[in-house]
Amino acid sequence: MTPPIDIQTPDAAGPDLFTDPQAAVARLVALYDQAAGYLCDAFTAAIEGRPPKHRVRAFYPEIRITTRSYAQIDSRLSFGHVSSPGTHAATITRPDLFRHYLEQQIGLLVQNHGQPVQIGPSDTPMPVHFAVAGRAGITVPHEGAADFTLRDIFDVPDLTTTHDDIVNGTHQPGPDGAGPLAPFTAQRVDYSLARLAHYTATDPAHFQNYVLFTNYQFYVEEFEAFARTVLADPASGYTAFVGTGNATITDAQAPLDLPAKMPQMPTYHLKRKNGEGITLVNIGVGPSNAKTATDHIAVLRPHAWIMVGHCAGLRNSQSLGDFVLAHAYLREDKVLDDDLPVWVPVPALAEIQIALERAVAEETALDGYDLKRIMRTGTVASVDNRNWELRDQQGPVQRLSQSRAIALDMESATIAANGFRFRVPYGTLLCVSDKPLHGELKLPGMASDFYKTQVARHLMIGIRAMESLRDMPLERIHSRKLRSFDETAFL
């Protein structure tokens, strides 16, 4: 087949100015639906044996704002305004999914600068793979599997616009000189939405704004039990529980029909209005999984994520079942070193720390000095070797001692570091399940008893903390500690 020469695009509406956030998002939705629908129709025709004789292209919609003044912005706000005069822009995907977020961010932008936003098509092509994602009955075949050459007709994902340059602080303005308005490009978001559906086997639309990570299946069982309890209470505000495979219940007594084959990261969502519920992700063991999960969940712009997993206690004064509230991290996980050098400090966030400490106090009925009997605050070390104890211990133990570490795991520092990198408020509350330096290894019988007594309480602490954060104004949760010198206006 001879490659098409001409390029045909949908007859999209040109750029227009908006001061009403809802009207602005409605235009984004219309532009996106038109572009995606155009690509889907052309792709369906090609699969059915009627490939176009021209190249088919459609563009992501775009938000753009131009300011000419160093307007005085409320210094307490860490978002909702651009850092300097000029033009700032962001390509947008799935505005239907991000409607509440976009209305919120556009509203702040217009309010803080007294300027309208411009909504129109961008110059970034929409890959056909992302346009058809989620469309029932439409899949993109592998290269060579179709009767036409896919890349001769359609645009495909492009790594030059699918990256983390903005959040990593290495972004360079485009030819028009516009700076970034949002932390991710549309293609980067689409890439992660596709990956989330793959790794978690749930639709990204189900993800909630408050995310708990764990490294054990036992927490999932307790999370479902809690979900059924609150679904039975109409006053709780929770409306549905979604499990792997998008299995959904709204009735506390209804069966949850989960698939026989589980995904790499089973994920469960306890939903509330406007995404204000709680998502639990079982990331399994290891920093690679922790990075993968947070790399993709970050595009959904959650308001907080917290690790509630198990750890090795490193002090003789600790007991099995004690809690560890991380206030610093020793990063020996290695998976983020290229994106966030180890010399970058990852600070504890006061709002998250207070919420977790109060949740421990409420759940254990201990307070003040008595709380120190079961909870330590200190440095958590995360390593990339699950069996670190089996190697020469002189080096690792010396570093752990010098860092004043009180606990060790394989995920917490990765989750915190990616929270810092992606500007997502983060925290860690671990539970001591073994003490390898003191001869208390995690053996089957001990583990079974430990899990039965500790998992439910630990999970409830995480849930209490998230519910506390949910009641906090966004400007308090999203700390200025997470914002750089030249920051995007959107969270």
From TrEMBL:
InterPro entries: AMN_phosphorylase, AMP_N_sf, AMP_nucleosidase, AMP_nucleoside_Pase_N, Nucleoside_phosphorylase_d, Nucleoside_phosphorylase_sf. It catalyses: AMP + H2O = D-ribose 5-phosphate + adenine. It is an enzyme of class 3 (hydrolase). Residues 23-176 form the AMP nucleoside phosphorylase N-terminal domain. GO terms for molecular function: AMP nucleosidase activity. Catalyzes the hydrolysis of the N-glycosidic bond of AMP to form adenine and ribose 5-phosphate. Involved in regulation of AMP concentrations. This is AMP nucleosidase. The gene is amn.
